[in-house]
Amino acid sequence: MIEITVAAALNLPVDELGAKTRRAAPVAFARQIAMYCAHVTFGWSLTEAGAVFSRDRTTAAHACRVVEDRRDCPHIDAIITAVEGALESWLSAVEFCRLHGGEQLQ
Q: CA separation (Å) from 4 to 79, 83, 94?
């Protein structure tokens, strides 16, 4: 879900974010945003956030620092805020379904 949301927000192909190689700067930054969201929004450890993208925890920690630094730009901050909001909504929906999965919604 993180990859899809970040890729859509930045108009990039989803498969580029999971690529084993570095890729161009926009793709690398999108991957950093995804690792940041995995850590901050989903509460995953840096090790878990990095592992999703075949990176180690130090790379995920670097990604979080880069994203935090770049949030000083209002345009970038707006994109990340929108991605975080979409992911938080998705998490809420998943939690609701988990708690009320057998009930009919009315």
A: 14, 10, 16
pLDDT in tens, the chain (106 residues): 999 999 999 999 988 887 777 778 889 999 999 999 999 999 999 999 999 988 999 999 999 999 999 999 999 999 999 999 999 999 999 889 888 876 665 5
Helix axes 25-40, 2-10, angle to 10 degrees: 140
Q: In angstroms, rounded to a whole number, what is the distance separating the alpha carbons of residues 101 and 96?
A: 8
Q: Is the whole-model pTM more than 0.85?
A: yes
- What residues make up the domain containing 42? 2-100
The answer as to whether 74 is a domain residue is yes
**Angle made by CA atoms 95, 12, 58, in degrees to the nearest 5:** 70
61 close to 69: Cβ distance less than 8 angstroms: no
Residue 105 lies in a domain: no
What's the CATH code of the domain at 64? Answer: 1.10.1750.10
The total number of structural domains in the chain stands at 1
